[in-house]
Amino acid sequence: MDLFVYYTVRDEAVEPVLARVRAMQAALAGDGRHPRLMRREPSAGETQTWMEIYPDATIDFEARLAAFVTEHDLATLAGPRHVERFADLASGSSPSCA
């Protein structure tokens, strides 16, 4: 399962948020993951929408990520974090239609 986390960042908070997200992702990359950070284009003007991507995330990883978000004080600098989980259909699981 891949984890996608998106949130907004005010233009005036870009530098401190970027530094903290990069530090957090560098620490989380220590276990062989290759996290990514993306930004929606174009910017909405006063805010930007950012997305963190964590491939092959486990439930344990989600708990670690939540702890790092608190530790790096990201919740106070950026908007609410929205977490989405996606599984690779090519991995052998079949989609069900409801």
Task: Please provide a written account of the structure.
The protein has about 100 residues and is α+β, with helices and mostly antiparallel strands. The chain has a single domain (about 1-85), classed as Alpha-Beta Plaits (2-Layer Sandwich). It is built from 3 helices and 4 strands, in the order βαββααβ. It has helices spanning about 15-30, 60-70, 75, and strands at about 1-10, 35-40, 45-55, 80-85.
Brief overview, please?
By secondary structure, this protein is α+β, with helices and mostly antiparallel strands. It has one domain (2-86): 2-Layer Sandwich (Alpha-Beta Plaits).
List keywords for this structure.
98 residues; alpha+beta; Alpha-Beta Plaits
Second CATH tier, the architecture? 2-Layer Sandwich
Report the span from N to C terminus: 21 Å
User: CATH topology, which one?
Assistant: Alpha-Beta Plaits
Radius of gyration: 15 Å
The CATH C-level name is: Alpha Beta
Question: How many strands, which pairing sense, and closed or not: the largest β-sheet?
Answer: 4 strands, antiparallel
**Total count of domains:** 1
Uncertain residue segments: none
Strand order of the largest sheet: 2-3-1-4
Note the overall shape. globular
Topology:
Blueprint (H helix, E strand, L loop, with lengths): L1 E9 L3 H15 L7 E4 L7 E8 L4 H13 L2 H4 L4 E5 L12
Antiparallel strand pairs: 1-3, 1-4, 2-3
